[in-house]
């Protein structure tokens, strides 16, 4: 019994430590070269426009990529779109970091000739962004990164414009309309049924 408790306790502690002391961003080296198609300051539309991202290992970086197994490319909030929004906070512990919330693509790692074209998803909030990719090693922890902006995240940013109010209200109108048609069909059916019943009783 005591041994059992001890095991549960150590298991819990393990999970706890893992989430508290995950990989920190500041410990990662910037070994990936990442580019994205939007020009600095460009406004791209959610649900319509496409972004092409390329990434590769920096060949002049003094180091190796032999531990990298997978890569994830993410859309990340620029500091200007994080102000007063705790739910987008940058935290050095990557398990808690909320800078990069939208995955563009995840792939097995390859050192060069990587490119992916992504249609910006409809539900991407209106904000200023950059693109970052993380390389992961075999135990799925972050091993390195690369990004389209500088270390202070101030250069080469672009904006995503959300689906406009007009589109949204049109969407709402069409949802209401279809709900209404289902309802009227149902009412019609009930009325018809009652009519048949009444005529049968006569
Ligand atoms: C590649 O790595 C070298 C050496 O660390 C560095 O000087 C250079 O700026 C890097 N290039 C890019 C595009 O990040
Ligand atoms: C990358 O693509 C270019 C052009 O398609 C090709 O010439 C080159 O050999 C490729 N490099 C690798 C490492 O696959």
Automatic annotation (TrEMBL):
Domain of life: Eukaryota
Keywords for this protein: Cell membrane, Membrane, Nitrate assimilation, Signal, Transmembrane, Transmembrane helix
Transmembrane stretches, start-end: 172-191
GO cellular component: plasma membrane
The keyword Transmembrane helix is annotated on this UniProt entry: yes
Pfam families: NAR2
One BP term from GO: response to nitrate
Region forming the signal peptide: 1-22
Single GO MF annotation: nitrate transmembrane transporter activity
Similarity comment text for this entry: Belongs to the NAR2 family.
PANTHER family (alphabetical): HIGH-AFFINITY NITRATE TRANSPORTER 3.1 (PTHR34806:SF1), HIGH-AFFINITY NITRATE TRANSPORTER 3.2 (PTHR34806)
Described purpose of this protein according to its UniProt entry: Involved in nitrate transport.
Name of the protein in question: High-affinity nitrate transporter
The species this protein was found in: Nyssa sinensis
